Each structure stands twice: as structure tokens, then as C-alpha cells.
User: Fold these one by one.
Assistant:
Number 1:
Amino acid sequence: MLPELSREEILRYSRHLLIPEVGLEGQRKLKNSSVLVIGTGGLGSPVALYLAAAGVGRIGLVDYDVVDTSNLQRQVIHGTSTIGKLKVESARDKLIDLNPDIQVDVFNEPFTSENALRIARDFDLILDGTDNFPTRYLTNDVAVFLGKPNVYASIYRFDGQVSVFYAKEGPCYRCLFPEPPPPGLVPSCAEGGVLGVLPGTIGTLQATEALKVLLGIGEPLIGKLLLYNALDMSFDFVKLKKNPNCRVCGPNADIKELIDYEEFCGVPSHDHDEGSAGAGLDITAPELAERMKTNHLKLLDVREPHELEISALPNALNIPLGELAGRLSELDSADEMVVFCKGGSRSARALELLASAGFKKAKNLKGGINAWAKEVDTSLPVY
Amino acid sequence: MTILRIPTPLRPYTNGKNEVSVNGANISEALNDLTLQFPNIKPHIFNEGGELRPFVNIFIGENNIKDLQGVDTPITNGEKLMLIPSIAGG
């Protein structure tokens, strides 16, 4: 039995009730439905806002982060007044203000192999709005194991992808991407940036697909992948087929339970630009400042040239990480060298590359130039 | 001559180009031509053994070459090739 709508709800959803594809019955279906939004960031913001506004009866929010100033360029569910607050609480308050008739369940914890099945079990639909590969593979496998549709979207700079991965009726995420890219090949948004409106465009498409699946209307993107590029304003569609060799949803699947996704992807399950090169290979900003007083150190900045306009260290040689392998001849392996980037992730990868090329005296500036700006030279901005 | 769409994450290795013209009668030849024109892209598409990396998806028209004849899939005139990357941002 579907729940009834109150007089207030009938007024609130009147523009839905006028559409025959939704109507009173569809609106009652939405009231009866539940969705789990994993991540309350760029994608999670518009997704949760529109699904709440549309009257989805119960929305689960999973995130363990707090609202940061640098989130607000795109994460429109949060606000300046909620900086420093838990994201799930900031988002819940906004949703309840938008629609007090819905229930919002918050999970202030990272989505992991230990808790994912417990959290996702009681929802009809999973929306993947995470920002990293390990959590994307985890989300996919959870959806496959629980037999639920996974409404997928991801973004990078100007590019977006949307699909509905539903192993019962079509391919899953692993059918398309059996393996993650090697660590470092595909930069994250914290490293590579993202156009603020992009998650708005892509997140609203994701919310659209979720509503179609919940209502059982239209043609959801099952077996199709939408590719969007904001610069070209291009929308391309490609067909996706079930991979007969898929390790989670294929006939001979050998992955039967959740695995260690950080190990599988070789990267941490968060998108914070806080790289470490490992024990003994990092140097902190205050340590570097001290060393620079007495020693002659080479400074290697592996950021992109346009980032130098934001902040820079004097006398640092700039070789972007992508060019480093081809420009090693500009460096001397006998030099003591400190490598840095914005937050320490790219420089940690640069250090690996340098070590494999015989540069044994290089160290990684922990926390990058942002740490230097916070702890040594506060005249520099943090970005 | 076929147009190959390059995704944003791989554009640093194609001098920023979003589309590249490649020659070849099949996917293998077209990719070989791509890596001759832009040698820096090679390690991002092929592994050390010269095989396509599993996370690289190549589509001809709207079909994945994995669902056709893999790198032996012939290229017919006018069909666009697309490299589809894994991206994870959210």
C-alpha cells in the first residue's frame, strides 16, 4: 500500500501531479521510496536537494567530512554559515528546510567495506556521488551484491559521465572499468580542479535518472553511458554491454564479498590533496625553512604553470609532473632536492619517479606549498 | 583518416588537443599512429607488454571495441573513435 498524501503535500507537489507520468500515484511512489546518496559534495548537493524537493520519502546521506570554504564554489547544499560543520548535518538541515515532510537519515562515517552493506541495505536506490576510485568500486559492488540500481555520475574539470548500473538488467561499473587506472594517472578534483557548475549539470542528470528509476518511467541509462563536455557543450552516448568476464556480476564472478578497495586501487578513499612520500622521505615546511638557512637546496615545483600565479617559492624550478619524465636531464641527481606541489600528492608521485631514475637525495614537502603558506610564510594564500 | 576524441585527463599528452586525426584500417593501426604522433601518451594506453590497459575503453561509434573484435576491429569511414577514461570526481 502506498502512503497517502496530505492536503499540504498535494499543494506542494501540484506541478508533479499535473504530469500524467507522475500523477498522484507516482508522487505516492516517491513518498514511499528511499535513496542513499553517497557523498554530500559537488554531485551529492544537487542530487539531494532535487530529490528532497521532489518528495522522495527517505534520503540517506553518507559523508564524514566537514564543510570547508573551498567546497562552496560548487557544493551548493552547504553555505558560508555552515563552514566547519559536519557535511551530513549541514546538508540535512538544508533538506529539512526545503521539505520538512521527508525523512533524512545521516551516516557521519566513511563508507567502507565494514559498514557499507549495513548502511545500504534499507534503501531502494544508491546514488554514487563519491570523489575517489576506492569508494566507487565499493559502491558498485555493494549495489551488485544487494541487487539495487546504482545511479552513477562522475566529474573532472569540464567532463562528466552518467549511467545507471543495474546488474539485474544490464552492466555494472566493473563491466566497463574492470580495473582502476594506475595511481596518479587520473588527477582528482582536489588536484586537478573542477568547474563549479559541472556537478550541478551532472548531478541534476543523476537526480533525473534516479526519479525515472523510482517512478518506472522513461528510459533510464541502463546499458548506456552519457559523456558530457562543458567546453564543447557535447553530449555523447555510448552503449554498454554486460561483460561476460565481469568479476562481480558475470556468470563466473569470483568476487563474492567486499574487498579492500584502497589496496585494489592503490590510493586512499578520499580526495584530499595530502600526499606523503612515506617514512623518511617527507620534510615539513618548518624543517625546510630551517634547512634553507644553512644548506643549499634545490627546489622543484611540479605544479602546472598557471598555479604559480597563485603562490610560488623563489628560485624553485618549475617542471609540471606530466613533463618530469621527459625533462630529467635538467636535474642533477647529486643535488639535495625538495619537491613540492599544492598539497603533497603530485610531489609524492614525482618522488617515486625520481627514485626510479636514480635520484636518491630528493625529499617531498609534506602538505605542499599550502603547508608553507600556513606555517612559514603566511603572506602566501592557501588554495 | 579517422577522428579520435581525446578525454580531458589524457589531453596533456596530446598537446591539449581534444581531437586527433589518425590513420589506420583497424583500431590497432590507429592507436599505433596516435602513439607515433604523441609518444608521451603511449604508457597511459598500453602496458609494458604492449597490450591495451584494462581501464582504457575505446569506442567506435557507440560501441566498445571489447564488444567487437578488440584492437582488430576494422575502422569504416566516418566512424568516430573515442577514448573513454575512468574519472572519479564528485
Note: Chain B has a mean pLDDT of 91.
Number 2:
Amino acid sequence: MIPLDHVIGLSAVLFGFGVIGVLVRRNLIVMLMSVELMLNAANLAFVAFNRLWPGTDASPILDGQVFVLLVITIAAAEVAVGLGILLALFRNRDSVDPEEASLLKW
Amino acid sequence: MSFSTLLFYIFALLVVAGAVGTIANIRNTVAAAMSLVLTMVSLAGIYVLLGAHMIAVFQIMVYGGAVVVLFLFAVMLHGGEHEDLPPGRMRLVKAASVLVAICVMAGLVRALVGFPELPAAGAGFGRAREVGIALYTDYVLLVEMVSQVLLAAIVGALVLAKRKID
Amino acid sequence: MVTGGTEFDLLRWIPLAPLLAAALHGVLLVVVRRTVSQWVTVAISCGAVTVSFVISCAAFARLVQLPDESRLLVDHIYTWIGAGVGSQAFSTELAFQFDPLSAVMTLVVSGVGALIHFYSWGYMEVDEREDKGFQRFFCYMNLFSFAMLLLVLADNLVLMFVGWEGVGLCSYLLIGFWYSDRDNAYAGSKAFIVNRIGDLAFIVGLLLLFWMLADAGHPTVGFQDIERYFAQIADVTLDLPGWLPGGPSYRAVNVVGLCLFIGACGKSAQIPLYVWLPDAMAGPTPVSALIHAATMVTAGVYLVCRMSFLYAVAPEASEVIAWTGALTATLGAVLALVQTDIKKVLAYSTMSQLGFMFVAVGCGAYAAAMFHLATHAFMKALLFLAAGSVILAMQHEQNIDAMGGLRRRIPRTRWTFLIGALALSGALPFAGFFSKDEILVAAYGAEVAGGRWFYWLMLATAGLTALYLFRLYFQVFSGKSRVKRELRDRMEDPPGSMVVPLYALSVLAIFAGLAGFPQAWGDLSWVDIEESNSFANFLAPVLAGTVREPLAHEIEYRLTLRAVLAAITGTGLAWWLYLQRPTWPGKISSSFRRLHRVLVAKFWIDEIYGVLLVRPLVAISDRLLYRGIDAWLIDGLLVNGVARGVRALAANGLRYVQSGLIQAYMFLMLVGAVAIVALLMR
């Protein structure tokens, strides 16, 4: 059987890569991708923990999976809006570097 | 080691490889997007191994399909951009970020060990029928709310992306 | 002590009727904001007070049908404050009680009040100093009637205190009624603040009493309950700080009694808290008549009588009351001698008469105090209203040096004023004679420090009363006219609506005394009335009786003779000085120039208070409380200081966190999240 420890470990590693991507990359598109990585890490944990308490055959517990579906939906919405913002930014600044958009300060 | 466990490790390796490819492809954003596809599809494989078939299908359709296609469209629109690695003004912050992120990873891995063996799941676990029933009975309110969010996001994305007519 | 109580549901309407009228006026004044005709205003106000009076009469009629020992009407509306459980349960009821004591007060307040309301119509109608004040005036007057009736009808100390504060507030509002004149506004504030000092002592006494009762297992504030359980705390002693004289421990009843008495001092203008009363004459004359002569200022006497069971076992407190009253009576009478303002003479006279009442309660003659309270209300209201007529006729000139010889110009006013003066100075068949005689008898038999001197002081003061009253009368109505010619020819008596209350009060001032026809006289063979002092007998069940041998009738006759002689001496002296030898008063005052100056300056009491109390208080309030604590500490340091600190911090450090770089923000967020998780997983 698949060891749960390893699944969760994978989820943590995936999340960490997501964090690094968001914090380090200077390309907004890739940053958004990294956000997707983090969300997927969470999804993986959801599914894994749901698998830990599957319920009975007659009445399976599906809360974790339902949440994953909701997260996927929200992620899709987020990407749509995020890319819309990115396009607007690109039109105005001719760049997708987040450091270019730093007027809102002090 | 059973076959499914072996498959899990293979998929896990692919997931990590895809993630690294996503964040490390500096020169080519399209390659990064493709690495993301790899991650998503491999994750779908893991979901199948965990018995969540329905999720796996959605994973491939929404992430592997729609989301990545969206990314590719965005890349196409701005034509890809060359990114210098020693990152501008934020050098120090970014070094620290990597450090912290690695700490988080290590911490999480260390903290989240010692779970019991996964029990055997029933046939109904993760099947489209059961997930559908759960979505439209217990979680129907949540689904409705998410649909509103989605609608708002569509409208918002349209407004943001619409080119100004001069 | 009265046991049991008969339900009488109409009771609540006695105070409520004026309250509703006041509220109606308030709505018309503030919400509707349309000038209503004077007819409507008067109809509402006088109607309400008349309703109160009629219900009071009905209640009185009901009360006297009951047997002596159960004369108590109650009207319970609802539980106002409820607290505690079990044996510590305590409730303050919104309830009214109507026992003989309340009955006397209620009848006086609503009766005299109604008459003065009618009088006010005429008085305020021709008043042109403030055009929109007519309705406001009646609103305040109704509010006052409500508060005063609440005070006298309340069945517990807390509710009584509400009325107590209410009359103080209305007094303030009405003294400063013509507020556009700063002096009037100051006089109102002065009355309010001086009263506040007394009120503090009142609260202290109230809480102390409640505390002791609660300690004894009967937490209560209702008069009936306090009296019922009072025996259990009568001997409790209180430990007080050693630097107080007479320590280390006092009998608690003395302390409570003195605290309540200080409250009464404030309300009833006794030494040392009397200074507000003369200044209170800044208000319209009907106000002076109603509030500062007939009703509110007697609240202190009522309070002491209400708590008579307490004072009856607190001889030390009683003695202090007696001497305070005696000194106030004397001081008021002496100061009244040199005043030249017609209303101030009457104000000092009021103070003096209140002193007489306190002498009575201090000597344990509670019924005599209540009797004088009632007759004084009639007499002094009469004098004030007559003075008001004089003032109207003089077109708001109040200085008696500018009057004189008015008896032909305003004969009706003159006759009523004369009746009032005769009654108050104690002429034989009039009301004041009987009540004052009773007080003098009580003072004669009292066991207070000073012994007989105490009596002689009171007798001399009674003589002074006649002197200053007839000085006033002769100065105003007799002798040569000192009025300006153009005013003299236009002078006339007030209209009927004002004269009728004067007549009604005159009748009361003449005949009210018969209610307290002394027993010693009733026993005379040619009179032969079995129970002649019906007033005292009526009150006997609710007042603590101090057991004392009644004086022998011969002594009483002798005392009466002395009182009559004193009154005649005073009157005669006034007649001699101000009619026969009108130059003498001036000569006397110039030959005793120093003394005269001291008297005119009222012993510089106001100035001494100003230096000793007011200025330090103002200085502390201004420097410490206002500038120090409010402006500097709270406003400057706590409010603006925090804001300035945050601003400085943000400007010099925190703002650099706001770099505008999203990745920096996200990094901080991550660090924060990690820190929180690390804390949680510690």
C-alpha cells in the first residue's frame, strides 16, 4: 500500500517549490504557475487525508474530495483573473516583471 | 513493494521534476508551462492510485487542459520575456525566501510523519456517482457559492483583459 | 408606625398629571415648534396641577376614613430595581405611599402649587422680557410639580432621591429662567452646585443606612421596611478615623442622621449651605413663591420628619439640627433687617422660618415642624405673590427704597400683604401665631445645649421676624411715596387671575392655624375641646413621638404671652422707626456704621466661601482637572500622543516595509505564517 507519510511529504515538497517559485521568479506568469503548484500541494493533502478516513462502503466520506473540486474551481477562476491582471499590466508597462509594478508604496 | 506503490514513486518523481522544471525554466516560459502539465498529469496519476478517480479526471481536464492552455495564451500574448537570474533589487529577499521555503519544506516533512497505514477504501470512494451525490446534496450551497465566484471571475477577467477602445 | 396599606390606584396620577403636562409642553416646544396661545398653555398646566390637587383631596378623604393606625394608601406600579436572591434579595419599587405626612405635603404642594400656577398666568403674561418664555415657564413649573410630588409621595428613599434631584434641576432651570442675564444664569448654577454638596451627603447617608440594614439582614430602602427593621440597627456603631472629634466610634444613627441632615441643609438653605437661596430670587416671582418659599425648600424638613424614627433615637444629631436651625433662623432674621430688595427680605425670611422648622424637628416636635411648614407655605407664598404684584406694579423695580406709600395705589395687594405679614409675624388669630407658638413651646422644653438661652434666642428671633416684616410693609406701603411720578399715576392692582390666588392664600393664612389649635387652649374651661390639636393628632401615627412630659398649662400660657409680646414689640418697633421717626433708621445705621456694613455685606459669607472654597475649587478644576488631566493627560498624552507616536514610528521606520514589491510582502507574510505555525507547534 502507498505509505501516507510519503504522500504528505510529496505534498510538502510540492508546496515548498511553489513558495520558491512565487517568491523568486520575476515573471508574473510563472509566479501564477507556482501558486497553482501550492494549490495542488494542498489538494494532494486533501485527497490523501480523505483516503485515510474513507468511510464505509455504503456511506463513503468524500469531504476532502469535494473540497479539492472546489479548490480546482477557485483556482481556475483565480488564474483567469490573474492572467487578466497580467495582460493589463503588460499593456501598461510592457513587462511582466512584478518589480516594475511597485508604485503603490510609502 | 507492490506495483501501485512503485507507480506512486514514479509519479512522485515526475511531480517533483515537473515542479522544478516549472520554477527553474528561466529562459523559456513555454517550457515552464509544459513542466506544469507534467506535474498536473502526474498528480492525476497519484489521485488514481489513491482511489480518487473523479478528482483525477478533473485534474487533467481543468489543470492539464484549461489552466495550462490559459497560461500558454498569456505567454503567447506577451511573446515570452527574457528573465535575468540575479534578480534585480530583491536579491537578498530572494535568497532568504529560498532559505525559508526550504525550511518550511523540511519542517513540514519532519512534522507530518508517523501517519498510520492507509486503510482499504470501499468501491464508492471517489466514484463520480458518490462525489456527485455529495456535491449536490450536502455541499449544494457551497457549489452555488463557488459558481457565483466563478461568474464574478469571468466578468472580472473580461473587464480586465478588454483592450481599451481609443 | 402604620401597618398594612390600602391600595389606591389613583395615587400615581398625582405626580403623573403634571409630568404629562410638562411632556406635552416639551413636545409642543421642541417638536411642533409652533406658538400656542396662552390659553392652551395655561389650560394644560393649571389643569394638570388642579387634577393633582383634586386627586390629593380624594386620597385625603379616603385616608381619613381609615382608622388611625392603618392610615396608609399605597400604589405599587412596578419593581424598579430588583437584585439579589434569598435573604439578600432587595428591590426598589416604583411605588407611592400616602400616609398622613405625605398627605400634608401633597395637599400643600398641589394646592399652593395650583394657586401659584394660576397666578403665574397673569405674572408671566405681562412679562415682556422674553417673548417665547411663556410656555417654557409653564413646562418647567409642571416638571417641578411632578418632581416635588414624586419626592413627597415616594415610598422609598431612592425614589425620593429622584424627586429630590428633580426639584433641584427645576429650581436651577427656573432661577436661570431669564438666562440672557448672566447673573441669573450664575444664580441658577450656584443653587445647583450648592445643592449638589448637600446631595452628596444625602447619598452617603442613604448608602450608609442601606449598608447597615443589609448587614442586619434586611437590605431595603422602603420607608415602611426601614422603620420596621430599624430597631435592629439602632445601636450599631461605626468606627471612624481617629482625627475626627469625639471618636473613635460613633453611633451609626447619628452619622446617618447628620448626613441626611446635611442633604436637608442644602435643599432647605440652612447654615452653611444657605448661600444659594438669596441669589435664587433672580427667578420670576411665582418661582420664588412656589419653589423657594412654599415647597422645595421645605423638602429638607419633610425628609427629617419622614426619618423621624431615626432622629428620635439620635439625640446628638437632633441637637446639631436644633442649633443649626436656631442659628440660621437668627442669621436670616438679622440679615433680612438690612436688605433693601423686597424679594431678598422675603428670601432671608424664608431661610429664617426654615430655621424655625429645623429647631422644631431638632427638639423632637416633628408635628410642630410640619405644622409650621404648612402654614409657612401659605403665608410665604402669599407674601411672595403679593410682592410679585408690587413688583409688577412697580414695573420690575424691587428696591424698597424706591417704593413707599403704595397702599392707596394698590389696595388689594396691600391688604393681602398685610395679612401675610401679620400671619408670619405671629399676630394672634393668624396661622403663623399657632405654628410658631408651638415651636417656641418645643424650644422651651427642649434638652439642648444652652438650655434656656436657646429658647430666648428663638423668642428674640420671633420678635425680629415681626420687625423685619413690618419694616418691609411700612417701607413699601406706608409713609411718603418715593415712586417716580410717571410711574405712580399708572400704578394699579394686578388683574383678577392674580388677585384670586392672593385672596385664597389670605384665607388660608388667616384660618389654617386653627388646625393646630393648642391643647392647652382647648383645655380652657370656656373653650373646652377634647382633642384640639387635630393637626398633630393626625400626624401622630407616622411621626416618632418623643416621650416628654407635656408642659404645665400655666407655663404654656406664659410662653404664649411672651410670644405675643415679642411680636408686638417687633411690630411696634417697626412702626415707631419707619413711620413715626423715618429719619432714625438712617441715623442708627450711620452711628453703627461698622455693624451696618457687616450686615449689608451679609458677613461677607459669600466672599469667604469664594476665597476658601470656590476659588480653590475653580483653581483645582481648571489647573489640575481641566488643564492637567483632561487637556494634558487624556487629550494630549493618551489620544494625540498615541497618534503622534504611531505617526513618528511609521514615518521613520515602518513605512519602508511598504516597498510596493509584492514579493517582499509575500516574503513577510510567509515569515509571519511560519512564525505562527512554529508557535502553535511548539
Note: The longest helix of chain A spans residues 63-93.
